[in-house]
Amino acid sequence: MRLHVADHPLITHKLTVLRDRATPSPVFRSLVEELVTLLSYEATREVRTERVDIETPVSPTTGLRIGDPKPLVVPIIRAGLGMLDGFVKLVPSVEVGFVGIRRDESTLQPETYAKRLPEDLSNRQCFVLDPMLATGGSLAATVQFLFDAGAQDVTAICLVAAPEGVHHMEEQFEGRDVKVVLGALDSGLNEHGYIVPGLGDAGDRLYGVA
Ligand code: PRP
Ligand code: URA
């Protein structure tokens, strides 16, 4: 597994506003969308392209475009849905799958309640969206669903992570083609499994309900 932690003042600035408990839901939603766009730049660095001949108004030339099979993006419902529009704006040809997981807050184990993915992901590049990588259970379960369906490689984009979640991913996907792109790597988890300093419950802050 490979890890990339963003190091850019614009990302840190937006994350700082996002973390602030005084930031209301509408601003929080806009910031999540802006942040996923910025992080997607790194996350799509290895997206597969094919050569294409075009004509500019001046001359014929050769360029690159994202070809087939199309990449698949999977937001982890709920909070990952807040990142979908930002990603799709950047890669409009992407196809979208869905995984619904909620963490049992007493055991911290992920519980899958929805899954709508193409049956065969052979040779497909996949991207997973979830703002929070805490224990890593939810992300690891989702990445495993994609590999089980034959995905070639998986890149996850998370806004904030704890080292515990990164270690979980490293252990489970050692030697697999998994990349995790983060906006920030925080200090750790508290006794309730929340990222410290983190930003609280991302789903609650995005949608205004617990
Ligand atoms: C949050 C978050 C991740 C998960 C991270 O979702 O969006 O999916 O927790 O925790 P983990 O790394 O310990 O698995 P939550 O379960 O709160 O559901 P929600 O998105 O519906 O609010
Ligand atoms: N899920 C969240 O939304 N926030 C955390 O800090 C941990 C899990």
Number of domains: 1
CATH architecture: 3-Layer(aba) Sandwich
Number of helical stretches of at least 4 residues: 6
Principal-axis shape equals globular
Give the terminus-to-terminus CA distance.
33 Å
Name the helicity range: 25-40%
Mean pLDDT: 97
Q: What series of H and E elements makes up the topology?
A: EHHEEEHEEEEEHEHEEEH
The fold-level CATH name is Rossmann fold
What's the main sheet like? 9 strands, mixed
CATH level-1 class: Alpha Beta
Oligomer: single chain
The set of bound ligands, ions and cofactors reads: 1-O-pyrophosphono-5-O-phosphono-alpha-D-ribofuranose, uracil
Report the count of strand segments. Answer: 13
Low-confidence stretches: none
As a percent range, the share of strand residues is 25-35%
